Batch of 3 targets.
Target 1
Amino acid sequence: MDAMISADATAGEAAYRQIRHDIIFGKLLPGARLKLERLREPYNASVSTLREILNRLASERLVLAEGQRGFEVAPVSQQHFKEVAAMRELLEGHAMRESFARGDVEWESNVLSAHHKLARLEQRMSAGDASATEEWKRYDREFHAALISACGSCELMAAHRQIFDHYLRYQIIAVIYRGDDASREHRQLLDAALARDHQAAANVLGRHIQACVEHTVRNGLLAA
């Protein structure tokens, strides 16, 4: 019985991660109705497990639970993107300050490694390799997570992960890639981290995030 419960829990966790991934990476579109019966086969989960998963995702604000009407993927808007961006800057800026103060040589090595992988993917994106989009964003997330990984607070890092995924969702939906400007900002963040210059990093981060929001609004990539 214990093994069966464990297998069900593992399958449920796998389904949760896949549905969450598909929402963040735009495979389940904003506003899409999430019919439990239709989700059973593609996610290999029972209706009861799917209901638990969607309620869990509702608590993360990635899904809307509408009582008797069921569930739908959370909508997107320019205003919400601005709010998400402001929260990301606040959390990441604070976490970077703590991380820069605490980080050791191992932390520096992790930051360097994460930046190297991101830079290689940005080269592919700049060359027009659209197939690299998901991998590029995975390394983008890894680099920013590495910057704050020495902050000393599990709660702060968990909050940052959640808000970063909301931000990432907007980047994927709006197909935001700013090319050499973004790559240059990532390099500046790396240099500031190695120099333990939090103020310089905070300034770059603010420009980095705000430019993404402005690009989205200016090009009408999201509804007002």
Target 2
Amino acid sequence: MDPDKIIPDLKRQEIEILTEERFSKIVREIKLPTTYIGFEPSNVLHIGNLSSSIPVIKLARHGFRSIILLADLHALANDKGEIEEIRSVAKYDRDVFERVAKKMGVGGKIEYKLGTEFEDQSYFIQLLRLAKVVNFTEAEKSMDEISKATMSRMTASVIYPLMQALDIGVMGVNVAVGGFAQRKVHVLAIENLKKLGYQTPVAVHSGAIIGTDGKKLMSKSFGNTINMDETHESLEAKIRKTFCSPGEIETNPILSWYKTLILPLTDGNLEFGGLSISNYKQLETAWAKQEISPQEFKKAAVRDLGMLLL
């Protein structure tokens, strides 16, 4: 594996690597490096989850061992249901993600793990050790970033980020992947896992996707998602209703989807009402000049998301 080829491929998406120097060292020195991203199996995955998974998908293509953690105990700690219900959702999410992975050329190259497969007695002994070296406020602030809230919570909300950090160490992860909301947890892991004898990971972060309403980030909680299990009919119906003001950039969900998901996974030019576009800057400029109509943009989004999902 060659970091000089892998890093530019990753940077087709707008990402942060903590740090590129350590990433290059891992690629050069470790025969089979491991990467992962984790999701709570509390509902069907959406394209925001897929977007944040792009580095894991690309690293799988480059020969990394790639893991999707379907974090059932995390979901339990975060009050997302009882364990059997959570595991049922996890199985469905695994099947949905693998179907999309096959379309991206990494079918069979992704490992899917439940937290309960390795979060055993020895794990929780290590969790207590980690809790003794991490400042309470640091853990609390990490969860604030994930949940986007500062209200008081149950004690589990402080345990949660420690579990995320420890997962990285226990699974032997070299490159931890997530959205920018995971940044504080990953920094916590970078600074503290070595105190327990684990290797220091690299972290890769990507931006969030705007929801269909054009007002909030895509989230199951806001009901503004494009899910990974959409049918052609449901995808078309959702995009038809998606906010798409002519020439508007900052609040345009479809523009956000092309920037963070579609273009980073697309080779070659895309057509928008007869206009050929090969990169995001061209697309943003054409949209700002209103060279692409909302109707043309939505039609293209149905086509291009359909290529990824259906």
Target 3
Amino acid sequence: MLKNALYGGVNAAVLTPMKADLSVDLDLMAAHCRWLLANGCNGLAVLGTTGEANSLGISERIALLEGLVERGIPAAKMIPGTGTTALPDTVQLTKAADRLGCRGALLLPPFYYKEPSDDGLLAYFNEVVQRVAGNIKLYLYNFPRQSAIPFSVEFISRLLAQNPGKFQGVKDSSGNYENGMGYIEAFAKDGFEVYAGDDTLMKPFLEKGGAGCITAAGNVNSAVAAQVYANPNSPAGEAANVIMSATRKAVISVPMIPALKVLVARNTGNPQWENVRPPHLKLTAAQKAQLFATFDACGMELPKAA
């Protein structure tokens, strides 16, 4: 595995709890962040896909970051998603993350316009670097199923050459082993951090020089994921990997974001956790029953919330 990575280890793509009026519940989110850090997480990827970030306004996202820091969540543990379709919004969010003390930010490509050229993407990210300045390290968020814009090895090579010292790594949510390995083989030797966005790929990535994971299922499986990270080449790590992989399959057996919120609601005894912003919908009774049966069969006991 890659040593000395800024966010090396297990990072949860943190859920965003909503009140009945669908505003963000910062107190509930801070409590969940503390629980994650106490149960296997090395870092917190807030404001990502799982956190419904693209259903939040820019002012809401900045208030969320500020509110978590005010509630004692260490900014250095957070790697917020700051990439948007609009250059000024991306710059504003990334500057806010830097100002608050986040060491890194995770950037989607400008995903509205499809099939941009590599030159166009380079122009976008070069502008972000120039306008943000500061000390914050930038991470690419490769999620072509959602963004429809993949980052090729050739593109990343050009980006790194034009912006030395600014881009620290990538979260690969392609779900494709060969894609993630392409990143590792090309860049890990130079300290570039490659994080699996799919729990089932963390162990094989670690074995080849990956840095860990940034995953949605980390909201519920971080304790067992930490065992995989600590023991990737041992029987204990293999046994933990089987459980971790099963938990991921369970949470994607129904719509994933409401599924994770239902599991946290059950674990905390707080039904407010089930609130999601449209277009997401709450799970039906049948979906809940399926989720609980599948998740409970994984063999992992979820640590209780305080």
